[in-house]
Structure to design on (578 residues):
């Protein structure tokens, strides 16, 4: 902090004087998709190469072009380079560090997945970036972590562009505590941390202040509205494509305007931007500030990184030595899929998705196929509950799905855990799954299931949204669905991430938990082989009602209309015969 304050004193005279235009390039949630991918973030197949997008070699092409042709360019990253493909699961931090150093972001913040391998997995990455790429995160305290305490990242940095001091403050979601494995690292409230740091910068004469965040689109809008010192929020975490207009690829769903304009109570404006995920787009925003540091003008849109953009050869050369290890691990053909196993646009975080059904079926089938403890039971396990956030990609229709495709979907290396719990506890878990439900930005806790039918009314308050739960009987000779009973004990399979409290799930009341070390990816792969060619469907396992208070849902209204219409017809027939 002393270094930052001293630096600020030297920049006080460099506050905005006259209009100042800044070009901001930004990426987020790349998740180790270093090579170009198909439009959904899966493997780029040679026969469909003309549709392939993204890849960090294109990121470098665009960044270099803007830096050559324009002044006052900032290239930012909003976290989550770790996790998502074999590049990370096999090689961990090293290729990530090499890629980030060559891209040479002006600043990046940490995402929750940077903590997935604990402090031990993050520390060497931060050492590699020292003095090359500034990492800013204002609300993460490393002081209690023996591994990270000497690598504490800055809360903010100040860069001088065109004679103007620009402050950049970082923040990561406080949910990292439960969504990852940060060890003894603690996390403060994101907004209050940003505000505190912004006030320090403002007092030092910095007028242009950017929040670089990994907290999600909804939270970014709140920060833009309630932190008056910040004029621009460059975000990540929610994998939101912000896009004005409809000239983006049809497979992508826009979650809001680019930029999203927030008008505060004092009349000043702040802008919020985010650029989807897996590196398919690079955000591009031009912003003009007046001499008070308030935004006057803006323009720009996300750049689709398609085949029209060349790939920088030195980035491809950097990746080449790693390729043999990455491809050897993932090129085994596991089967075929007749359908698109769809997880793009975050649908598995908001509603039932066919790939979620398929994965949950795989886990339930694995245990249902084992010998049962009683002769009357067809299975010792009733159902499977996983979280939509654990599903990280789609699988296209293909006759040759390889292990790498599955790894893109399921990169975290979870084990399967069978737990015994009563119906009341299970009901509470389903309540928790949608406690923070938002159709535009649902969190990773949203459930995907097998052996259940669950109905929600999301117009009700949190923890009162479950309407009904039906569960597959296990101690029965003919499998059938029954209403969940509070006092009956059930056995379900889940993943180690959830059992350990990930996404806020609480299994503390469960008994007789068994984790035999069965890897989720291995079980998924065997089920894929067994059921190939895959034809996974949507089956209304999860129904979402959205009644307003005092309103009847559409199905009930339809039933009343039908009943009333029949009555009128009967009356008409009666009078015509009399």
């Amino acid at each position: 902090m002393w270094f930052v304050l001293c630096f600020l004193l030297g920049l006080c005279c460099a506050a905005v004087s006259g209009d100042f235009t800044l070009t901001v390039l930004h990426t987020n949630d790349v998740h180790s998709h270093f090579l170009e991918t198909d439009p959904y973030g899966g493997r780029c197949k040679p026969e469909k190469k003309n549709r392939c997008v993204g890849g960090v070699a294109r990121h470098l092409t665009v960044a270099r072009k803007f830096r050559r042709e324009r002044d006052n360019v900032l290239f930012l990253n909003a976290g989550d380079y770790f996790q998502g493909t074999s590049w990370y699961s096999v090689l961990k931090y090293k290729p990530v560090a090499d890629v980030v150093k060559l891209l040479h972001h002006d600043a990046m913040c940490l995402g929750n997945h940077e903590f997935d391998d604990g402090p031990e997995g993050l520390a060497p990455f931060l050492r590699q970036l020292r003095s090359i790429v500034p990492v800013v995160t204002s609300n993460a305290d490393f002081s209690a972590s023996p591994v990270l305490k000497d690598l504490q990242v800055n809360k903010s940095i100040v860069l001088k562009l065109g004679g103007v001091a620009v402050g950049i403050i970082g923040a990561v979601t406080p949910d990292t505590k439960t969504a990852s494995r940060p060890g003894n690292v603690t996390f403060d409230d994101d907004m209050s941390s940003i505000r505190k740091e912004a006030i320090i910068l403002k007092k030092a004469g910095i007028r242009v202040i950017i929040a670089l965040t990994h907290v999600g689109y909804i939270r970014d809008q709140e920060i833009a509205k309630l932190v008056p010192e910040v004029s621009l929020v460059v975000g990540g975490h929610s994998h939101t494509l912000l896009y004005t207009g409809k000239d983006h690829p049809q497979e992508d769903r826009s979650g809001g305007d680019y930029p999203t304009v927030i008008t505060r109570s004092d009349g000043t404006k702040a802008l919020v931007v985010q650029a989807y995920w897996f590196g398919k787009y690079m955000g591009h925003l031009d912003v003009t500030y007046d001499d008070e540091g308030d935004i006057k003008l803006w323009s720009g849109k996300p750049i689709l990184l398609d085949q029209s953009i060349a790939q920088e050869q030195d980035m491809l050369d950097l990746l080449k030595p790693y390729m043999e290890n990455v491809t050897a691990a993932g090129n085994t053909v596991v089967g075929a899929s007749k359908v698109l196993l769809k997880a793009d646009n975050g649908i598995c975080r908001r509603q039932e998705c066919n790939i979620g059904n398929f994965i949950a079926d795989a886990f339930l089938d694995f245990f249902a196929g084992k010998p049962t403890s009683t002769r009357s039971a067809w299975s010792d396990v009733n159902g499977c509950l996983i979280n939509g956030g654990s599903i990280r990609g789609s699988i296209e229709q293909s006759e040759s799905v390889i292990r790498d495709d599955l790894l893109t979907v399921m990169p975290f290396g979870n084990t399967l855990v069978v737990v015994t719990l009563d119906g009341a506890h299970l009901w509470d878990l389903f309540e928790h799954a949608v406690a923070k439900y938002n159709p535009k930005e649902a969190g990773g806790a949203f459930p995907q299931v097998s052996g259940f039918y669950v109905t929600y009314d999301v117009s009700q308050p949190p923890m009162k949204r479950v309407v009904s739960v039906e569960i597959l009987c296990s101690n029965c000779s003919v499998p059938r669905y029954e209403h969940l009973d509070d006092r009956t004990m059930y056995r379900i399979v889940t993943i180690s991430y959830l059992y350990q409290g990930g996404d806020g799930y609480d299994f503390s009341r469960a008994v007789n938990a068994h984790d035999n070390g069965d890897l989720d990816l291995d079980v998924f792969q065997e089920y894929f082989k067994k059921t190939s060619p895959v034809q996974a469907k949507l089956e209304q396992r999860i129904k979402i009602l959205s009644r307003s208070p005092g309103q009847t849902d559409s199905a009930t209204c339809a039933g009343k209309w039908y009943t009333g219409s029949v009555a009128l017809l009967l009356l008409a027939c009666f009078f015509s015969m009399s």
Q: What stands out?
A: The CA atoms of residues 349 and 388 lie 5 Å apart. The chain has a mean pLDDT of 90.
